[in-house]
Amino acid sequence: MEQEAFSIKGWRRNIYLFLTGQFLSGITSMIVQYAIIWYLTKQTGSATVLSMATLLGMLPMILLSPFVGPYVDRTNKKVLLIVPDIIAALVAVVLAIVGFVTHDFPIWLVFISLVIRAIAQTFQMPTIQSILPTMVPKDQLTKINGQLGMVQSANYIIAPALGAFLFAIISMPVLILFDVLGAIIGVTIILFVKIPENAQIDEKVHVWTDAKFGLDQLRAKKGLWYITLMGAAFTLMFMPAVSMYPLMTMSYFKGTVAQAGIIEMIYSVGALVGGTIIGFLGNWSDRIKPILISMLVMGITMGASGFLPRNYTGFLWFFALNAIGGIAAPFFNTLLMAIIQQSYPPENLGRVLGIMNSLMSLAGPVGLVFAGPLADKIGVNNLFVIAGVGTLICGVFVLMNSATRNYDKQLQKELKD
Fold first, then answer.
1. Hey, what domains does the chain have and what are their CATH numbers?
2. Which of 67, 86, 214, 224 has the fewest CB atoms within 10 Å, measured from its CB?
3. What's the whole-model pTM score?
């Protein structure tokens, strides 16, 4: 291999074993996640409870990511992938036992389980993002990120349908135990995956100093810093509209619950197609160009959805626009992640990703807070118009800012030298 730091033999078999584990453990975890949300919906029928559940699922990523990064850089990666799975499985066992004994789940206990699951993901996400560059050659990194995106999109497509089927035929306590099955599968596979470790493993962690280091590293690369801020602004604009998809289908278009589910699914199908394109064709000399095209397409499809007529024809157009937007979405997320992974040495990547994930996640809850009242005041379709226009403005900023526009060309030149 030309890549000096890359030394794993049989890397392709190794990474596909890892991706298989991510798919199998991910789908069981998502089935349980959907089941919990459906349970809360069925038992409470409360929008407040559902909003609280969504917020609890997002807060750990926002609050803990800057401080998780230092541990990602200095802790055994297998431990960081395995321990959260085991803890989530133990919580599932406790929740299932309570369900078997009482035939009910206290809301507070469900909320605690959601928080613990979210904390586990907060540790696992930057760990996965930081180990990929150490497991594959540099020239394959974008493709492998695309294939990881394919795995995640496939989970989003399969889990809701499979979860709904299982939710209808087996008891909730039994369904929750799928988390244990997923943990067993995930941990077993990870034990056989070869993951290189950083030289600074087991060094003392200085949480605040290391978090500041991650922020300074991100800000030092102006082009990357600006596009991260644009990603946060994009999330702020996009999240309110995304949270209103069911309301758009059922209220604006007068559709059914089944049609709302189809709209959610078609976006994931589109994302799977986009991830597949990246996964097999993903070698661009300048990845900022497809990122800009992605923002353009997502802005147009989202904004145009707000102008559709309130009839069945409008709904069919909504369906088509969501499919196109779904195809475009992975090009922003996946290519940006590959750029970040190649911009920093592996021993610093966890701290940088911790800051970046926190910034990107922070905008989501802010948008969600205003989504409901704003939709009631101006109409749910106008949220889509705002999201579309805001996304296009973010894209124009990236295009007009030379540090951001030329960042990847300069990066790839440096990587070749």
1. 11-191+204-416 (1.20.1250.20)
2. 86
3. 0.73
